[in-house]
Known about the structure:
The complex is a heterodimer.
Chain A: H1 2-29, H2 43-52, H3 59-71, H4 86-121, H5 126-140, H6 143-157, H7 175-201, H8 204-211, H9 216-228, H10 230-244, H11 248-253, H12 259-269, H13 272-300
Helix pairs in contact in A: 1-13, 4-5, 4-7, 4-10, 4-13, 5-7, 6-7, 7-9, 7-10, 8-9, 10-13, 12-13
Chain B: H1 3-21, H2 23-31, E1 45-51, H3 65-74, E2 79-81, E3 88-90, E4 93-98, E5 104-109, H4 123-134, H5 152-156, E6 160-163, H6 173-176, H7 211-216, E7 223-224, H8 228-236, H9 239-245, E8 249-252, E9 260-264, E10 267-271, H10 279-282, H11 293-299, E11 315-321, E12 325-330, E13 344-349, H12 353-362, E14 367-368, H13 378-381, E15 387-391, E16 394-400, H14 410-418, H15 422-429, E17 432-434, H16 457-466, E18 472-473, E19 479-480, E20 490-494, H17 499-514, E21 519-523, H18 525-533, E22 539-546, H19 553-556, H20 572-583, H21 587-604, E23 607-618, E24 623-624, E25 640-641
Helix pairs in contact in B: 14-16, 20-21
Amino acid sequence: MLRFIVRRLLITIPTILVVISITWVLIKLAPGNFYSGEKPLPPAIEKNIREKYGLDKPWYQQYGKTMWGIVRLDFGTSLKYQGQSVNTIIKRSLPVSAAVGILAYLLALVVGVTAGSIAALKQNTKWDYGSMALAMLGISIPNFVLGPILVLVFSLTLYWLPPSRWEGFPSWNLVLPVLTLSAIYMAYIARLTRAGMLEVLRSDYIRTARAKGLSERDVVIRHALRGGLMPVISYTGPALAFLLTGTVVVERIFALPGLGNYFIQASLNRDEPLIIGIVAFIAIVLLLMNLLVDIVYAYLDPRVRY
Amino acid sequence: MGSDKFRQILGLVLLASLACANYSCTVSASNEEFFGSTTPPSRNIFRYVTGDEPESLDPAISNGQPEARLYMALFEGLVEYSPKTLKPEPALAERWRVNSDSSEYTFHLRTTGRWSNGDPIDANDFVYTFRRNLSKATASRNAYLMAYIKYAQAYNQQQVFVRDPKTGEFLLARDLDADFPPEPLSSSPIDPAKNEYPPDPKDTSPQLDSAFHQLMHTATRLTLPGDQKSRNERLEANAKLKAAVAGKEFVPVKAEDIGVEAPDKYTVRISLVQPAPFFLGLLAHQVFRVVPRKTVEQFGTKWALAEHIVSCGPFKVKMWKPYDQLVLERDPMYWDAAHVGLDELYFYPVLDNSTVMNMYKVGELDAMFNHAVPNAWLHIMRSKKDYMERAEAAIDFLIINTTKPPLDNPKVRRAFNASIDKVAYAEWRRIVKPLTAFTPEGIFPGYEQPKGAAFNPAEARKLLGEAGYPVIQNSDGSFSCPTFPVDQVEFIYNSQQANKAVVEWMQAQWKQNLGITVGLRNMEWKTFLEAKEKLDFKGFARGSWGADYMDPFTFLSLFYTGGESGTGWQDPKYVTMLDEANRTLDPKQRFHLLAKAEEYLIENQPIIPLDSPSVNWMKKPYVKGMYPNPGSLYPWKYVYIERDRAKWDYGTPSLDAE
């Protein structure tokens, strides 16, 4: 097990360097600059700016500087936001994205697993149809539709909840973004749980458990759920990595100072160090999450061994 | 991300749900006098969205309008915009005098100016600021606005003077440059017999002389590019210049050579390279706002972060959480602190216009930035008494790449212009006024704007025929122009806002009136900018321009140096006309000459004027001292919260002087 983890961690490093190199090339290929605006700059002023930020140097020097920084986990200073280091920006915006993301996922997990299990246990009843219909709705309604509708109802019409902005954790401002964000995950998890549970409920070891005379409660919670949740667990890795690192649409609608917001703005602004920093960060989180999922797998499913 | 599409969908969903979800509720809502809550904030604060997250709190860095409004709260210059007209009014300078041809300005600072840390502000701070903002190390995007100051541009571009090593004399520009305009008073020897400054009975302070002042009052020196390669190119092109430079030494232009000095502790004198009557208005721009030398030198590029910043405006930084909120509080050190109306100013960076409107409606905002009201909401908002709509000092136009055929022919350009019905266009856009010239209408009092060619499709077809592309009328009444090289012309635009609908509108006009179908090409914003800047497009591009200062020259100067217009059009005659206008002392006559230059510009048609937009934003009725001025810039010290309903604004406040 330990060898497996070490090996996986070692593979992670070159993967991240490749991801960053591809990103770097794409940024260099993209037309436009962080300083360009509606009013074109006189060439002499543009030259001053390029020299100040080292953009006039040959490509291998610029690439080398970027990579050397990343090896030391120093992503440099944002070009657009003068004087702000990329590390500070990530440190500041990650908790916002993480708070909203984790809350949304927890909510999705509780509601989704409950609904999915009920649907599986009462297959082909009104419970099953009802929860699966809701799940279908959750998957089909995009969050940029759901968000504004929730705002319209709960903020603009009823005046119950604030329509946007970050007011720290916990606060009432979290309710609408968390609901908006969790809807689609809730729906997915419900469907995954239902499918997983249906499969497990028909398997031999459940029949054995029932034959031993265990109560239905024990059968479901101790045996069926454990196996039935495997698909949910493998889904959790990438989903959580995605949620942790910010979700563009929700952060935009609710004006949250999260990582996703920065990521999009950095790309639109051609803010090279910030783009690279966030890409590297997301890559690291994603790879770690996948590793974590594999470890949890081994713990939950006795058949899985590394 | 296709944010415009996203916004459209969002708007549609909102409208649809408004219509079906609660019909009775929407009806009552639209009957309300104001949009949403009118409860003033419980504390004496003002909450605002100025746009996206600010780039930096350093006034030398950003050239954006959202940041300009922040800088107005934090930093002050010699003069400040007045709240209604944006004309310069005294700020850190309490009075000033301008010499007879507007080429030298002397400012007398108030002695009560203080930094937020309590240190006094004196003339040397201004000298430092001007030098710093022009330096290569600062690399300010706004440095071009300071180019009117003597040797400022040469210093910014790291140019060199040319000196004779034997005599120590410098070569002069007027001897070697045939086009060099007559020297202004600021570069002519001081003549005590002549009153350089018009007499002012109110101001009897002595005119301080200094060695630097004497030096400025000598003929302008020749400057050449600092790097050898460009310098040699320049010399090769001009044999006379090359001969004159031979055997001479090159002396780099230093910060100390710039025409800014502090003859005493509370006097700042600025010598310009040319007469510039608009310069005073320009001085309120962010790049001229004074920055604290000690802090800047101590912290470098990090000086404007919340933990280090020292400011000098009516407000200072209390808390800054980037992409979340910037909280400013009244600065007790500010010289006019007693007249600052608010305790705190909150700036929220919000990207999405619908989110801004939501926050405004529920009462989390007291006002919003210009153009935050989505177009689809206009018909509702126009009936509200907290909606602001007024003329804006900005224009929208089409940029033409004049370097490529067939649009290198002015007749073809004129034909494309005359075949657009701008009146119908403005009616369709709802928020704009038709434009036929290159300056917005009714913004500069006393400026007689030339009238450009009106909508005339028959004339347009005739022009196109004269250019060698005859337009034929088909049997069904439509037109076609078979010889026109359609593949050589396209229309590029950026995928933002209602741009697509606008360019399709133009496309339809040309098809209908000329029988030419111009291809459309959609681009991401920065890609679009790059194509425009490098003239890497054929045909047309969308363009717009907002005033940097309240003078027609801020628009006309777009074609002054050529490179900035994105059209490739440059005409020495036009430049001479502008120079002549700016040398004219009588303001009326100057405007007349500027209008002549503008007429010449639109005759040549490197652009197709479309419209002048209107400012459109909202402020709660209890917000006073904030006016829908043409530049959407607000001197924050005048803004206050009025709790007495009787004194609220019911409708757009007047911009007339009281």
